[in-house]
Design goal:
Elements lengths: L15 H16 L9 H26 L7 H26 L5 H16 L8 H25 L5 H30 L7
Helix pairs in contact: 1-5, 2-3, 2-4, 2-5, 3-6, 5-6
Length: 195
């Protein structure tokens, strides 16, 4: 099972870097060098970014339906939503540079949103959606590193590729830091009043 932020070893606040490292190590143990043969990593980066935004929007819905006590954090959640959109747009641009024509981020987001609705319904009302978005951000960083490694080892690395993949990495970290801060405030909230 892939490491998650819910694992006892990764559950502590400030553990995002450990989450990335654990998921990367798990992927290396499980998949080895299979990424060297994959040509769809850039598209997967866009999909992971779409999933970040899906989980942020699901968290917003959860607050509206179940956690009215968190409305004082609405401005911060909106800022995280904007960061997720920026991350998605950046991932789309970089994916287009790396692999040519890509589905627009908005289309990928819509497809992922509809898939989640069909598959999971209202499960998000009982889930830590912010932790899920952190896992998706970690996967963006890992996929960017795998794409860089693939390009280096197959002699396909162009001069701009490294810088563009570094931008994705820094954007994912920026998003994750904002989510970690918001998640800490949500976890510290006393909870909804009893009905």
């Amino acid at each position: 099972m892939s490491p998650t932020i819910h694992d006892g070893t990764i559950a502590a606040a400030g553990s995002y870097r450990r989450l990335v490292a654990a998921r990367r190590a798990y992927g290396q143990r499980t998949y080895g060098d299979r990424h060297l043969d994959r040509l769809d990593l850039a598209a997967n980066i866009v999909q992971e970014a779409a999933d970040c935004l899906v989980y942020v929007r699901l968290e917003r819905d959860r607050w509206q339906r179940r956690r009215h006590d968190l409305q004082h954090l609405a401005r911060q959640l909106k800022a995280v939503d904007r960061l997720a959109q920026q991350l998605g747009a950046m991932c789309e641009d970089v994916a287009r540079h790396l692999a040519g024509e890509q589905a627009p981020f908005a289309d990928v987001f819509q497809e992922r949103w509809e898939f989640g609705q069909r598959t999971y319904g209202d499960a998000h009302l009982e889930r830590d959606n912010l932790a899920e978005s952190l896992e998706e951000a970690a996967d963006i960083q890992i996929l960017a590193l795998l794409e860089l490694d693939r390009r280096e080892k197959t002699n396909r690395l162009r001069p701009a590729d490294r810088a563009l993949l570094a931008v994705i990495d820094s954007q994912a970290i920026r998003f994750a830091e904002a989510v970690m801060d918001l998640r800490g405030r949500v976890l510290a909230a006393p909870g909804p009043p009893a009905a």
